[in-house]
Write a structure and sequence with these properties.
heterodimer; A: mainly alpha
Chain lengths: 99, 186
């Protein structure tokens, strides 16, 4: 409990720069509960951090949508597919893979 | 090289091209912009996959594994072409010397929706990211490569990866914000 409170106070006292880093880091991994609670409290009264957190989360979702659209928009041309197949087999024969 | 090894390689390449060829092509063409370069990069990707097939542990999907190799090959291409932009950071610092916002993020009238304009603006901003930052974003945000694996691929520590992701996302946010309100940035 003492450690939790110490982490909580430490996080709460950090400047916005550090909170912004935590707001992006929480998109990648779960943060300790003491950090999350302090982050929530900070974003309650800090409008800039609140906006930042919402915007980066929104952009992450938008980036994923972009990737999905791009991935489904282009098809590998048959001529390129054939050339790739031939070139890979030829080069694999010249320099045998470890498989 | 034995004919059985030739056959194994042939089957693997056929299988990869059949199952993941379109995605690899779209990924490489989207990054490299040139069909010729994209073809070369896909070829290098498949060869590297053949060479490393025995190291594919199956921890990720095969597609993610191939895309992560392609991502490296794209980065190699830009390094070779000397187009790899140096780590200029993700733009000007948004904080003062005490770590407070200066200025803070602007409120967007609306969150960008996945329409053509917003996606085009985002693509432009992603292309502007320095390669080291962009690569981290591709691995984590697009390919969902786990942190530990992404660190191995990039040769960085988790702390360094999170720093890169933070800088990349902060840079993207600023760039998209500027494109959402061009009259303010001009």
């Amino acid at each position: 409990v003492t450690r939790w409170i110490a982490d909580f106070i430490l996080t709460l006292r950090m400047p916005c720069r550090a909170h912004a880093e935590l707001l992006t880091r929480r998109l990648d991994e779960p943060l300790p509960s003491s950090t999350m609670v302090a982050l929530r409290i900070h974003t309650l009264y800090c409008r800039s951090c609140r906006l930042f957190g919402r915007q980066v989360a929104n952009l992450k979702a938008l980036t994923r949508t972009l990737h999905q659209r791009e991935a489904s928009a282009e098809r590998l041309p048959e001529a390129v597919r054939a050339r790739l197949q031939e070139a890979c087999i030829r080069r694999a024969h010249e320099d045998p893979p470890s498989m | 090289m034995s004919s059985s090894r030739d056959d194994t390689a042939r089957r693997a390449v056929e299988c990869w091209l059949r199952d993941h060829g379109d995605v690899l092509w779209a990924f490489c063409l989207g990054r490299c912009k040139s069909p010729q370069v994209a073809e070369d990069v896909v070829q290098e990707t498949l060869l590297a996959a053949l060479q490393g097939a025995d190291r594919f542990a199956g921890a990720w999907s095969e597609r993610t594994w191939l895309l992560s190799i392609a991502s490296h090959k794209v980065a190699d291409h830009f390094r070779r072409q000397d187009r790899d932009r140096p780590q200029r950071g993700a733009g000007p610092d948004e904080f003062d010397e005490r770590g407070r916002w200066s200025p803070g993020p602007a409120a967007w009238d609306r969150d960008p929706r996945p329409d053509a304009d917003a996606l085009a603006a985002l693509r432009e901003c992603l292309d502007k990211l320095p390669a080291g930052l962009g690569h981290a974003v591709w691995l984590r945000d697009l390919l969902d490569v786990p942190t530990e694996e992404a660190c191995k691929l990039l040769g960085v520590t988790p702390t360094n990866l999170w720093t890169r992701l933070h800088r990349a996302r902060a840079g993207l946010r600023r760039c998209v914000e500027a494109s959402l309100s061009p009259e303010e940035s001009s």
